[in-house]
Description:
Two copies of one chain form a homodimer.
Chain A: H1 2-8, H2 16-27, H3 33-40, H4 44-56, E1 60-64, E2 72-76, H5 78-98, H6 104-116
Antiparallel strand pairs in A: 1-2
Helix pairs in contact in A: 2-3, 2-5, 3-4
Chain B binds a DNA duplex (23 and 23 nucleotides) through residues 17, 32-34, 42-48, 51, 65, 68-72.
Amino acid sequence: MRMDFAETFAETPMRQVLFGVLSVVSAMPGLSQGKVAEALGIRRANMVALVNELVDLGLIARTTDHRDRRAFSLSLTQAGEAMLHEALAQIRRHEDRMLENLTTTERSTLVNLLRKIHGSTSR
Amino acid sequence: MRMDFAETFAETPMRQVLFGVLSVVSAMPGLSQGKVAEALGIRRANMVALVNELVDLGLIARTTDHRDRRAFSLSLTQAGEAMLHEALAQIRRHEDRMLENLTTTERSTLVNLLRKIHGSTSR
DNA sequence: TATTGTTATACTCTATAACTATA
DNA sequence: TATAGTTATAGAGTATAACAATA
């Protein structure tokens, strides 16, 4: 999955982590830079360059928060929304290819069995 | 899996990549350093330090090949075999924990379904 | 001339500490 | 005093190029 994704966007400045940021910002527009970083397990210090990249690419907008002038509110630009939708379409294409040999019943059986697997670390 | 593994050997000089080397050398004793690197997708240049570490830890033996004096033949020491067995036992414990909620029938169904998934990249 | 192991080196990712401006 | 973002920096991991010894 990761390899297919990286290959698709290889000739592009986009990387998986940048799509992660776009995804969180899209789900919770207006969230602060630090909170987005926390949601993704990224250190605030390392978040700076990532946000700079996305702003430079015109994919997110960074505005100072009205109520806390230390913080930045992040939101997607139209180009950012379009880029995120492209990534989601790529993910769907990948899944379709992966699962092409399974019937609908087999797919749901697979999901049910996977759900029964014990998450020993983060769940 | 990776996290569980790393946690188990955290207070140890062992890392996943070193177990990878031990595993390949154990399966094909006498293989050259470069071939082991190739089997693991490691560059020859980066292999040097890894083999040095394992030799210093007393886990592998490095001898010059009789037929090609440029090459090193790698093989496991007794301590290396013991370390590899420890890792395999840890992997088995992890799998047992993961699959504790599945019956034998469910486990084989799961494996059969996973086998039907289309490998889009490396298979 | 080609190959094995080696060294030097650069680039990415990630982690910590210290700074600034606000709160 | 604490927090949000920033900067500088250090450590892994991994990539390439050039070299000596051997084929």
